[in-house]
Write a structure and sequence with these properties.
- This protein has 476 residues and is an alpha+beta fold.
- It is 28% helix and 31% strand.
- The protein folds into four domains: 7-63, ZPR1, zinc finger domain (N-terminal domain of TfIIb); 71-202, Sandwich (Jelly Rolls), CATH 2.60.120; 207-303, ZPR1, zinc finger domain (N-terminal domain of TfIIb), CATH 2.20.25; 311-444, ZPR1, A/B domain (Jelly Rolls), CATH 2.60.120.1040.
- The strands form seven sheets. Strands 1, 2, 3, 4 and 5 form a five-stranded mixed beta sheet that branches. Strands 9-8-11-6-13 form a five-stranded antiparallel beta sheet. A five-stranded antiparallel beta sheet has the order 23-22-25-20-27.
- The longest helix has 22 residues, at 454-475.
- It is elongated.
- The N and C termini lie far apart (81 Å).
Length: 476
């Protein structure tokens, strides 16, 4: 069996030491390199250089694993001094922006681990490095840079709260810590964005080779599409009920296959989609995606049908092993609450999930691990203790050593927990319907929808536009 390339951080782990040329004095220095894993984060390459001749030294962090499926944009609203202490991971492909200053640190800098305050201090140091020379040769530029340095110093001194600190990373490998985890950070917004060909080329990917690869596989993909048979149907089986069986003789019983751009590399991948109906619930849309070029794959389950007039709250008290085996569907519009540990996952967390109650508890733990890479040995003790307590509780709940209550609050009534006693009443589940408020309707985009008298409004708008055009023509 081959040795593992990236190993967990260990006191016995030996680094790789080699001679390399010093960029400062051009004599031979010593580079120390270690391929390792940061706990609960990613594979990284730690590089340290030291020259005995001139004393020059340098450190660098490079990501050694695969890039994420998406490019990411992390927008943090810095509102107080505590935000300066947030740990950050910046990859070598990441651009830092401060919109209020119209300031940008390009991605040409090396990857690093620092705090927000640390990045701002490094920026000041970089700008000050050649100021003495500029003062003599270019006094006007010197004055402008001095004013800009003062603006950054004002940010550090807290004179400009709030301001925005933005990471734009096409590799998706940058991170800003959420100190409120596992709860939502309302001052931080994370966007997942598709990559452009230019971004892929900047990261070292050859767009020409990618297109050539896809062209060579087009015939193969077309043949597979033509050989579409029953075994291509996505099968959902729960409690011996095959949900993939055709409901009627129309398209509902088939698996549709079409090409869509891959969110990872931007090239065409294969999207499969089928509809299925869950007994005593409603219709679901099951989708799976595979990119033949980069290997990206994903699965997703979405509810079908109309928008419900009311939302629904489902409360399950887990009292036996059978409760852990219940089938469960949590939609994207559903928040999840475990009151025993004051844990709340907002709408959209975990996406659309079809699993069991036990599987949901595992997914919650995996999600917390994935989204909190700074929960390792260097984490804040109180934050680390809080996460450890949550993980321990979830494990005890799965082993039936702890009482657990799961509350699903779905704004669109698109989630369900299986009732094994149907059509009898389920004694361990409480179901409540509720009317959505204005804010919840706004989250769903319902406040701006017009669902009645479409033609009337269109006619009124058209008349108003015509009158406005006439008035403009007369004015001209």
């Amino acid at each position: 069996m081959a040795d593992q390339v990236y190993q967990n951080i260990d006191a016995t782990q030996e680094p790789i030491i080699m001679e390399s040329v010093c960029v400062n004095c051009e004599e031979n220095g010593e580079t120390t390199m270690m391929l390792t894993k940061i706990p609960m984060f990613k594979e990284v390459i730690l590089i340290s250089f030291y020259c005995k001749n001139c004393g020059f030294k340098n450190t660098e962090v490079t990501f050694g694993g695969k890039i994420n499926d998406y490019a990411t944009k992390i927008n943090l609203k810095v509102v107080n001094f505590n935000d300066f202490k947030r740990d950050c991971v910046k990859s070598e492909h990441c651009t830092i922006k401060i919109p209020e200053l119209d300031f940008e640190i390009p991605s040409s800098r090396k990857g690093s681990v620092n705090t927000i305050e640390g990045f701002l201090m490094n920026t000041i140091e970089d700008l000050q490095s050649d100021q003495e020379e500029r003062k003599e040769k270019q006094p006007e530029i010197y004055e402008k840079i001095e004013k800009f340095i003062q603006k950054i110093q004002d940010l550090i001194d807290g004179k400009c709260f709030p301001f925005h600190f933005v990471f734009e990373d096409p590799s998706g490998n940058s991170f800003i810590k959420n100190p409120y985890a596992p709860n939502q950070d309302h001052n931080m917004h994370i966007e997942r964005l598709p990559r452009t060909v230019e971004q892929l080329e900047a990261m070292g990917y050859s767009a020409e080779n990618a297109k050539q690869f896809v062209e060579e596989n087009n015939k193969k993909l077309e043949q597979e599409n033509q050989e579409h048979t029953a075994n291509r149907i996505v099968h959902l089986d729960a409690h011996r009920v095959d949900f993939s069986k055709p409901l009627t003789e129309d398209v509902k019983g088939e698996s549709l296959i079409f090409k869509v751009p891959c969110h990872s590399c931007g090239l065409d991948g294969e999207q499969k989609m089928c509809t299925t109906s869950i007994p005593y619930f409603k219709e679901l849309i099951v989708m799976s995606f595979l990119c033949q070029f980069c290997g990206t794959k994903s699965t997703e389950v979405k509810p079908g049908g109309e928008i419900s007039k009311q939302g629904k709250i489902i409360t399950l008290h887990i009292k036996s092993v059978d409760d852990l085996k219940r089938d469960l569907f949590k939609s994207e519009t559903c928040s999840l609450i475990i009151p025993e540990i004051e844990l709340e996952l907002e709408y959209g967390t975990l996406g659309g999930v079809y699993t069991t109650v036990e599987g949901l508890l595992e997914k919650i733990e995996d999600n917390l691990l994935e989204n909190n890479p700074f929960a390792g040995d260097s984490a804040d003790p109180s934050f680390k203790k809080k996460l450890e307590e949550i993980f321990a509780y979830l494990e005890r709940a799965r082993d039936m050593k702890e009482k657990c209550t799961i509350i699903l609050k779905d704004l669109l009534d698109n989630s369900f927990i299986q009732n094994p006693f149907y059509p009898e009443h389920d004694p361990d589940v409480k179901v409540e319907l509720f009317d959505r408020n204005h804010e919840e309707n706004d989250i769903l985009g319902l406040n701006d929808m017009k669902v009645e008298n479409y033609g009337e409004k269109h006619y009124e708008e058209t008349e108003a536009q015509q009158e406005e055009q006439k008035a403009n023509c007369q004015y001209l």
